[in-house]
Amino acid sequence: METPAGGLASETILEILRMILAGTSLKDVLTSVARVVEAQREGMLCSVWLLDPDRIHMRAIAAPTLPSSYVAALDGFALGPEGGSCGAAVNRREPVFVTDVLTDPILERVRDVITAHGLRACWSAPIISQGGEILGTFAFYFRSVRGPSPSDLELIESATRLAAIAIERKVAEDAVRASEAKLREDEEELRRIVDAIPQKIIVLNPEGRVIYANRVCLDYSGLSLEDVRADDFRERVFHPEDVQRLREERQKALAGTVPFENEQRALGKDGKYRWLLIQYNPLLDREGKIVRWYATGTDIEDRKRAEEKLRDEGRELRQLIDSIPQHVLVLNAKGSLLQANQVMLDYNGRSLKEMQGAGTSDRITRDLHPDDLERVQAERERGLSKGLPFEMEKRMLGTDGRYRWFLFRYNPLRNEEGKIERWLATATDIEDRKQAEDRMRNETVALREEIVHSSLFEEIVGTSEALRRVLLQVSKVAPTDSTVLIVGETGTGKELIARAIHNRSKRSSRAFIRVSCAAIPPSLVASELFGHEKGSFTGAFQRRPGRFELADGGTIFLDEVGELPPETQIALLRVLQEREFERVGGTEPLPVDVRVLAATNRDLSAAVGEGKFRQDLFYRLNVFPLQLPPLRERADDIPLLVEYLIDRYARKAGRKIRKVAKRTLHLFQAYDWPGNIRELQNVVERAIILCEGETFSVDETWLTPANSAGTDFRLGANLAEREKEMIESSLRNARGVIGGPNGAAVKLGVPRQTLESRIRKLGINRHRFRTP
């Protein structure tokens, strides 16, 4: 009887699916499907036919109630225009319903077989995979004339879908089995091939542990595969001097996914070490993850011996340079190219003939970065003319259209007579190092600033109440990122306080950039602070970063900030407000993370009132003002400062000062010191030079006490004059000779370098004292 639902019941479908999942044979599953379908329609006979691999013939796989003679008569029939309802269903890719076998022309070829078995109606539906491939047909027969009803169509659809699932599962299982068998066969074949390769081959897992080693590798080492897989394999096989290096190289390289290689000495079963070149190549999955590493070992013992011989004798140079991973060039005595290794040819994208034919000068012009051309040509000509080893850095154009930095080292190769016959040049890619240098340029520039603009002290000296108040404020503001305005007279140590703030801040490990605003011409202030682009003005031959860019992440100290021109004040205000700036000639704003410390000896409030300094900039700078006391308010600190300075300059001048005259110390404490600590420094330094004993003292005429009528500081002129007279007298006695046992330096008791420095500073012409 027909079921009301038309299709198969869900319980029936689930039972069929369980059979499929349980691994029941395809024939049994399809037979069960045929029986279940036959049970849904009275008088229906079912069969399932599968396409042969040739896609032309069909074979019966399930026909539980059809006469076996009928199945045998049609088994293996060929598809075609008259291939019956099954052939038509395959060709049309849709169900075909023959209501009366006696009248439908598509059954011409098989009509006699069908009618001979008492069948009058024949329906066929194609079994189609999820990928759209025809797998076979599901055939339905009746002994009376009959057409399909809507419920019949639902039943046919359910039946063909179940049959497709079962067949696809079988096909997939067969494919997997065949694939596994093929893989096993291929693996065995691959092992035989690998064992036949004369190179040593090792397979490693992603972590670098050995999985497999070929017969050549095992025969060389005399070890078993289990020995090679052991943790101590490398310690047992590789030369002790190579183990640590190889471990570090492998750990670093195995963390990536690119091929790499190394050279190592491996112990053979004969007890001798031989050099091997181990080349590692990764096997990646579809996601780019390492599945295996394949390492091949090539015996390079002979090559190593040849390289040693080449280094000693300078022969077979071409073989050597092609084995070096650097760019290598061989030039004639005049610098014209003779040879270049493959690495360099590959980088330039040219043949050796092309590089030779263009001429060295043309090649350099074409391949060099335009900004390096003039410098490199000058350095190259100068180096070749001297005939000594030299090196230079330059940017070279690669095949990818980009420039990379290389370090070129030139070494002359001389013949037995000492005459240069060749130049050997090697080029090492230093692009990564250059980028690292760019990232560290802040620290580099800060170091230069430290050298050029060295502070008065390595530490702050003093214990006075005025100084302690300042240092207390420094300790509170230093850990913050607040802008600080340091105000004080000239020579009070404003830069020293700025450095103290930086050193105690969270930016202490980054750059400290000092800018003397008063020392920069107004026309160059913007370029100095914010940098400029190439060609932005006359003389801007290349892009140059400014001080703010160099100080990124650190601290910038704007000394004498009150001297900034108005237009630069606007740009500085923008940096403080928006934390960004533009280079001169640039259009893109550049973000910057920098702490600003400013200093001035001017009254900025008065300058604002006079219209010489922007009020809004003053407010931005004056977040945390620090007022430094002048030296006259720190009289208690003068003894400590004098002691510190005497020690500093006595050691520099090679003198021994054991004590300070009390009269001199009282004179120092009484003096007004209009030049503050810097003036005290100059007095002590010059007095040390003029001092003839072990007691430090100055003449009271050098200084005018603060309570004298009108401060008249004559030390500069007096000391310079006396010092000049003393040095000239010594030069005259030494006949213009500075060094040596009879030189002027010995007569004065100072180091030769110190005396030469003072001669230059005082403008003394030493040559006029020489006598024939």
Please tell me about this protein's structure.
With 772 residues, this protein is an alpha+beta fold. The longest helix is centred in the N-terminal third of the chain and has 47 residues, at 150-196. A hairpin with a 5-residue loop joins strand 9 and strand 10. It has a five-stranded antiparallel beta sheet with strand order 2-1-5-4-3. It has 31 helices and 24 strands. Helix content is 44%, strand content 19%. The radius of gyration is 47 Å and the shape is elongated.
Concise description?
The protein has 772 residues and is α+β, with helices and mostly antiparallel strands. It contains 31 helices and 24 strands.
Q: What are the main properties of this structure?
A:
five-stranded antiparallel sheet; 772 residues; alpha+beta; 44% helix; 24 strands
Describe the secondary-structure layout.
Blueprint: H1 10-21, H2 26-40, E1 45-51, E2 58-62, H3 68-74, H4 84-92, E3 96-98, H5 111-116, E4 121-128, E5 134-142, H6 150-196, E6 200-204, E7 210-213, H7 215-221, H8 225-229, H9 233-237, H10 240-254, E8 260-267, E9 273-284, E10 290-299, H11 301-313, H12 317-322, E11 327-332, E12 337-340, H13 342-348, H14 352-357, H15 360-367, H16 373-386, E13 390-397, E14 403-414, E15 420-429, H17 431-439, H18 441-452, H19 465-477, E16 484-487, H20 494-503, E17 512-516, H21 525-530, H22 547-550, E18 555-559, H23 566-578, E19 580-581, E20 590-591, E21 595-600, H24 604-609, H25 615-621, E22 624-627, H26 638-653, E23 659-660, H27 662-670, H28 676-690, E24 695-696, H29 715-733, H30 744-748, H31 752-762
Helix pairs in contact: 1-2, 1-6, 2-6, 23-25, 26-28, 28-29
